[in-house]
Design goal:
Belongs to the TatC family. The chain is mainly α. It is about 75% helix and about 0% strand.
Length: about 270
């Protein structure tokens, strides 16, 4: 018995469908955000303020690497700055926005699931079966990016900017909002950058990008990556190189993904002939 086809949705129907996906995603973010809000001590003292400690794992690893090469250049003994709150509502505002950010990070798999449900009606039946793989891979890449931002980008930025000084007459009293904004942007930017293979996959499926296009503009991509690395890291060469390496690896992986997509589509076309 043939299955009944669903009637084609109008533009307003699509808008209404999108609205409900956004509502459910927002509710998920707020649900996890409430949990993060309640766990204030753990979120701030144990996680966010950890890179301010000279004993943070990243600093210890860098120190051991430095000592392996016979120098103490990457070893640090102290973070010579303190936090301060200058506005009456600053700490509360930081608490709210941090909770929302944590909520977004934790709810990311659910958000990806909602995105998939919105775009799946326009996909083939075989493509719809890849929902689980899409959600798992997207979430995995995002969380790897978040960890990279937290353990690599954030410590490099905090160490450089926290120790940078133009004069001994200037005290290093850092606004709490400024510090949290640095951590937040480093983590979210890294998480989203690591979604590059997924973006390339869909752009290739849509016919907007090909492997040859990615190869031809590889040099341009290198410059773009270095500029992007300079934006999300402190202005020193070592930090930029450390951040640029995984992004370049992701770019090369994206080329192979684009090849695989075109190869699969070519096989499907031959089968249908």
């Amino acid at each position: 018995m043939a299955t009944e086809e669903k009637p084609e949705m109008s533009f307003l129907d699509h808008v209404e469908e999108l609205r409900w996906h956004l509502i459910r995603s927002t509710l998920a973010v707020f649900a996890f955000g409430i949990i993060a809000f309640i766990m204030k001590g753990f979120i701030f003292n144990t996680i966010l303020f950890a890179p301010k400690n000279a004993n943070f794992i990243t600093y210890r690893v860098f120190c051991k690497v430095s000592q392996f090469f016979g120098t103490d250049g990457l070893c640090i003994d102290d973070m010579p700055f303190t936090f301060q709150s200058l506005a009456m509502a600053e700490q509360f505002s930081v608490h709210i926005w941090t909770s929302i950010t944590v909520g977004f990070v934790l709810a990311f798999p659910f958000i990806i699931w909602e995105v998939w449900k919105f775009i799946s009606p326009g996909l083939y039946e075989k493509e719809k079966k890849g929902a689980r793989s899409f959600i798992i891979i997207s979430s995995f890449l995002f969380f790897i990016g978040v960890l990279f931002g937290y353990y690599i980008v954030t410590p490099l930025s905090v160490n450089f900017l926290g120790n940078y000084s133009i004069s001994d007459m200037v005290e290093r009293n850092i606004k709490i909002g400024s510090y949290i904004a640095l951590v937040r942007s480093s983590i979210l930017a890294s998480g989203l950058i690591f979604e590059l293979p997924i973006i390339i996959y869909f752009l290739t499926k849509m016919g907007l990008i090909t492997p040859n296009f990615l190869k031809i503009y590889r040099k341009h991509a290198l410059v773009l990556v270095l500029v992007l690395s300079a934006i999300i890291t402190p202005p020193d060469i070592i930090s930029q190189v450390i951040v640029a390496i995984p992004i370049l690896i992701l770019y090369e992986v994206s080329i192979y993904i684009s090849k695989a997509v075109l190869k699969k589509e070519h096989k499907n076309q031959l089968k249908n002939v």
